[in-house]
């Protein structure tokens, strides 16, 4: 497809619009709109427009580094949970993160916010888990039809420091966006 993806995330409309801007001087561009489900504890009237990037690691599980033990010279692997391999790309961007990996939604959004993201899109990790109807089986405890966002039953204090507009999308839509970004399918 060959364009630079720019996203417009609207928590009010529960939508992510993705425009593929031309990589060269041509006038050709294309766009698509994806329906989603906003996070209950994030701002609900925000619209942000920014480059769209994938988190690395995609599930926001943190960066694993090898460090040498000063005592015996052996090598240890440590995980820096709040870091991403591409934090520099996330500053001022809308970041797409995959659901799962044992990382709660709150931690995924908080980690992206710490990296400077202006918006977060969480892609479901199972085909059929979340569908365009956004029923209870997707994220138990909330109902988009009732005007509630996902994470509705979470305690408000758990989300107090998180101010980043966040949207949940289906795996199918997430895989399409990953193709546009040029990421390998997982």
What does this entry look like structurally?
With 186 residues, this protein is α/β, with parallel strands linked by helices. The chain contains three helices and ten strands, in the order E-E-E-E-E-E-E-H-E-H-E-E-H. It has an eight-stranded mixed sheet, sandwiched between helices. The model has no long low-confidence stretch (mean pLDDT 86).
Break the fold down into its secondary structure elements and pairings.
Layout: E1 3-10, E2 15-22, E3 30-35, E4 37-38, E5 47-54, E6 63-68, E7 75-80, H1 87-90, E8 94-98, H2 105-114, E9 119-123, E10 166-169, H3 171-181
Parallel strand pairs: 5-8, 8-9, 9-10
Antiparallel strand pairs: 1-2, 1-5, 2-3, 4-10, 6-7
Features:
186 residues, alpha/beta, eight-stranded mixed sheet, two-stranded antiparallel ribbon, 10 strands
Briefly characterize the structure.
The chain is of the alpha/beta class.
Estimate what percentage of residues fall within beta strands. 25-35%
How would you sum up the global shape? globular
Strand order of the largest sheet: 3-2-1-5-8-9-10-4
Report the sheet with the most strands, covering strand number, pairing sense and barrel closure: 8 strands, mixed
On the 0 to 100 scale, the average pLDDT is 86
Helical content class? 10-25%
**If helices are DSSP runs of H or I spanning 4 or more residues, what is the number of helices?**
3
How many angstroms separate the termini?
19 Å
Runs in which pLDDT lies below 50 for 5 or more consecutive residues are: none
The gyration radius over C-alpha positions equals 17 Å
| Structural class by SSE content | alpha/beta
Query: How many beta strands in the DSSP annotation?
Result: 10
Order of helices and strands: EEEEEEEHEHEEH
